[in-house]
Design goal:
The complex is a heterodimer of chains A (182) and B (280). Chain A is mainly α and 182 residues long. Chain A is built from eight helices and no strands. The longest helix of chain A has 26 residues, at 73-98. Chain B has one domain (58-265). Chain B has helices spanning 14-30, 118-122; strands spanning 130-135, 138-143, 146-153, 156-159, 163-164, 177-179, 187-196, 205-210, 216-218, 220-223, 229-239, 250-256, 259-265. In chain B, the strands form three sheets. In chain B, strands 1, 2, 3, 4 and 5 form a five-stranded antiparallel sheet that branches. Chain B has a four-stranded antiparallel sheet with strand order 6-7-11-10, with no helix packed on it. Chain B is globular and about 65 Å long. The chains are: A mainly alpha (182), B mainly beta (280). At the A-B interface, helix 2, helix 3, helix 4, helix 5 and helix 6 of A face helix 1 of B.
């Protein structure tokens, strides 16, 4: 992806209180953040809400937006990781409460799109179950590097940790997954 | 065993994309900085001072302290999970609230609210505190057996004086912090309060604040990762800058299921000036 001066313009726009810069950032990275949130939450609808929250947080902290190697993406993934972590916690609390309620009858919907969404959600939830045993910080590194495609350096910037820490966390995460009994 | 592979990526649905984008733009236009309208230069650094009886505390030179996006720990902050214990000269503790000398009513030129992140502002109030819970602009910071509430509004940050984590019967836990950001037509008055919900009463707790204009604001409740529940209340209304001491006092009614307690907040410190990092 060609990044650099145009990203600097985006950041300058945010620092200058320009709502159009926020919209441009959303246009550019909305899909990536949406998928990152989905991989945290396992639910497309919740990922939509979380995506919105991420960019609202970006605006709230617009003065602090910064580039990493010419890209705002690591900073953005850092915000998204925190937002999704919180959303995940909230959901767990909600689910604990909802679990006490009687279950509604399942509604069948044969629409292809809905089936596709549900299928990917089910698959993502399986993935999340598999990585549930990993410590949160290892899951986050796995999500950023293996799934979101960030470099070690970008993930380090996103999580505000040294690059070596990213490497070791990813290595440990992969080792743990390998040791899992299928 | 192979590494688990997530499903293929997909774009945001068009309808969701349009809705989110419109919401973002509306929010951004609504929450653009009011900084240029401030009568005092709050730009790069703000000196925040309160005159304590014994002379010093809460002096802060700010600026953006190298903020990063994410934290590595379990905190819910969105800025850097910075070390709140940076070496900064600071008072050992917050002075007795009755030793603080402050103006009687809203004096916006003198508010000089903090402009840094909560993590940075907390250094001057409850050094070493860690964020326990956040809901939007309101966050709770704990160190030992005390906590402070932090509230961020368009680049201004208000931190309340530390209060015991053990909920008490007195008014201390229900005092409000006040800030008066200028608007085009006068001033906005914002009152913020928050605290710990007694264990087991999360579902029934309510703190209702009735303000001079007759409006009543009820508390919201959230639970942090450790299971501790917090309540908070934020109320704002336009203000013409008059002397608030001539207005009816703020009444607080706290409900714990069938039990209610009422408090009247006296104007000025400490009841309506619970903040520790700027004046009223």
């Amino acid at each position: 992806m060609a990044i650099g001066s145009d990203e600097q313009e985006l950041v300058d726009g945010l620092h200058g209180d320009d709502p159009a810069a926020l919209a441009a950032l959303f246009d550019r990275y909305g899909d990536r953040i949406y998928n990152h949130c989905f991989r945290h939450l396992g639910d497309w609808a919740e990922a939509e809400d979380a995506t919105s929250s991420v960019f609202l947080e970006v605006w709230r902290h617009r003065r602090r937006v910064r580039l990493h190697d010419g890209s705002v993406l690591p900073w953005l993934y850092g915000v998204a990781t925190n937002v999704c972590r919180n959303a995940s916690r909230s959901r767990r609390r909600r689910l604990r409460a909802v679990a006490r309620l009687p279950r509604p009858f399942p509604e069948t919907d044969h629409a292809e799109e809905v089936a596709d969404r549900l299928g990917s959600q089910a698959r993502m939830k399986e993935v999340l179950v598999r990585i549930e045993a990993l410590p949160a910080h290892e899951r986050e590194v796995l999500g950023l590097v293996a799934w979101a495609g960030l470099s070690y350096e970008q993930a380090a910037a996103a999580l505000d940790v040294p690059v070596g820490t990213v490497r070791s966390r990813l290595s440990r995460a992969r080792a743990r997954l390998t040791q899992e009994v299928p | 065993m192979t590494e688990p592979t997530p499903p293929a990526e997909r774009p945001l649905p068009d309808e969701a994309r349009a809705r989110i984008r419109a919401d973002l733009l509306a929010h951004a236009h609504e929450h653009r900085s009011r900084a240029p309208r401030f009568a005092v230069p709050l730009a790069a650094a703000a000196a925040v001072a309160l005159v304590a009886g014994t002379g010093y505390w809460a002096v802060h030179a700010g600026g953006d302290g190298g903020v990063g996006p994410a934290g590595s720990g379990g905190s819910a902050s969105f800025g850097p999970e910075t070390d709140v214990s940076d070496p900064v000269d600071e008072p050992s503790d917050v002075p007795p609230s009755d030793a603080v000398s402050l103006p009687a009513g809203p004096t916006p030129e003198g508010t000089q609210v903090g402009t840094d992140t909560c993590a940075v502002e907390l250094k001057y109030v409850l050094r070493g505190a860690e964020e326990a819970y956040r809901d939007g602009d309101v966050s709770f910071w704990v160190k030992g057996d005390r906590y402070s509430v932090c509230y961020e509004l368009d680049g201004s940050t208000t931190v309340t004086r530390p209060v015991s984590l053990t909920p008490g019967d007195d008014v201390a836990g229900f005092r409000v912090a006040s800030l008066y950001p200028p608007t085009q037509s006068g001033y906005l008055t914002v009152r913020v309060a928050g605290g710990v919900v007694p264990q087991g009463l999360e579902e029934v707790f309510d703190a209702a604040y009735t303000f001079p204009d007759g409006q009543t604001e009820h508390s919201e409740v959230g639970t942090d990762a450790s299971g501790r529940s917090w309540w908070w209340m934020v109320h704002s209304h336009d203000d013409d800058g008059g002397n608030e001491r001539e207005q009816p006092e703020i009444e607080v009614t706290v409900s714990y299921s069938g039990v209610q307690r009422s408090y009247t907040l006296e104007w000025g410190p400490p009841d309506t000036c619970a903040q520790a990092n700027h004046g009223c």
